[in-house]
Each structure stands twice: as C-alpha cells, then as structure tokens.
Amino acid sequence: MDSNFIKGIIPPIITPIQDDERLNESVLRAHIDFMIEGGIAGILAFGSNGEFYMLEEDEMEGILKVIIDQVKGRIPVYMGVGAIRTSKCVRLARLGVRLGAQCVSVLQPMFIKPTEDELLSHFKTIAQSVSGVPVLLYNNPGRTGYAISQAVVEKLAHSVPNIVGMKDSSGDMTETMEFIRRNRDTGFKVLVGRDTLIYSGFTVGAVGAVCTTANYLPALVCSIYSRYIADDTAGALDAQFRLNPIRIAMDKSSFPVAAKDYSNILGRAVGEPFLPNKHSPQAQFENLREELRKGGFLT
Description:
Mean pLDDT: 97
Strand content: 5-15%
Shape: globular
Oligomer: single chain
Number of domains: 1
Radius of gyration: 18 Å
C-alpha cells in the first residue's frame, strides 16, 4: 500500500454554492485549477472548512464526482469522513474510495465523547472497511470537544496496517511532536492542522499540512513547504510570518465563514456559507480585507 504521496500542502476545499445552496459546479472546477496552479499537493474533500456537516450524502457524492473529474489525476484526492455513527462513516469512506479518492481522513465523533475502547473500535472498523487504502486520523479537539489521546493513536498506528498517519489540529506542538515520536517506527505520517504552525511542524518531522488558507493563498502557503524542503528555512519562515496575521484574523469571524469571505474578497466568487452561517459582519469583513492589503495581496 503506497502512502508516499501523503505530504505537502493539502487544502480542505471549500464548497462553492449558489443562492439556493446548490453546488456551483463551474466555480468549484475553477477553484480546483486555481489551487493546483498554486502548488497544492492534494485536496481534502469534506473537511471542516468544506462544511461537510451541512451536506447530505447524495450531495457529497455529486461534489466528489466533480472534484475527481476536475482533478484528473493531477494530485491525490482525500475523502473526509466526519459523522457520529460508525456505520455512516463506513458508508462515506467506501463512497469516497469507490469514486476514486486515494486516501480517507476520519474525524473523531462529535457531540458524544467516546471511551478509548469505543474510539479504537470506531476507527478500526472504518479503516478495515477500506483495507488497502491509506487512512488518516483527524484530531480536532476544538470542534469535537475532546482529543484523540496519544495512547489511542499509538495503538491504532501499531495495529491497523492502513492507518498510516493523522492530521493534528490540536494546536499543541508538544502533542504534535509526541504523535510523531511515539509512532515514527511505523512510518506514521503527521500532517499539521493549524495554518500558523506549518513551519513549526516541519521542524519536528511533520510531512505536510492541511491548510484552509491554501484555498485563497495557495502560492504563499505552498511556498512554506517548497522552501523548507529546499533547505531555504529562512524563506519558509518568512512565508509563515507573512501568512500568520491573515490566518489569525479569521478567528474573529464565526466558524467557518472567513475562508469564504477571504476567497470572495480575492475574487474567487465562492458564494455564501450554508445557513445559518452568514458572511462576517461588515467591520470584520473590512478587517479581513485590511489584512490582505497589509500582506500585499490587495491594492
């Protein structure tokens, strides 16, 4: 099972929609090309900023078909799975693989708080349902209310052959480092899930990053990775410092609207968030615009 492709900058692609909340297919196709031209190494469908929790399964199927068709094998496509019920996660994982996704990323269940035994069973069942396809754990305590423990990750990394890595959105570099240290003997691949910590993650062994900001500033975000692997660490750090104020400004908006706000400001025309979310209030919208100006991305 090849997992060497799991590396670099992988945006959780936003979902462009029309006024009636149906997919804006032409914008999605153009958005994919825009990010690929910016240097991304993969696309994560149905990540948190892709508003997966707003989508029905038939909508996911239609969107993924468009993504797979537009990518045309140029980069890997990752299927994001985020549901409470194990059987639904299995169904979504299999859907993604059937349509052509090369990897599956599984978020821990939200709303409930499973025991470690329950989490182990949950992830193992999903991974075994798509055996032969690489599976990533997705640790996002800020959205689910709890973290996947080091012990659970270590057990899964050492016992389930196709659980090959994880995205860590804890924002805690000690946690990230421990996920790497405790599982490096298996070749376990850790992706950074905080855009402000991309460079920091690379310095301790992360192989890539899942970055919302690569939706609207792909060239800048990808330069952090490309410069780092080219041993231009000073240039990589400069790019990270240029990105950080733009990313930090997103936190003043309600989640996840700022990614679409930034994209629209930069002319991507991705439409509104799904209701009940709305675009940022005018003062915050202008704050986002100002950060882009200060960064040199708007005149």
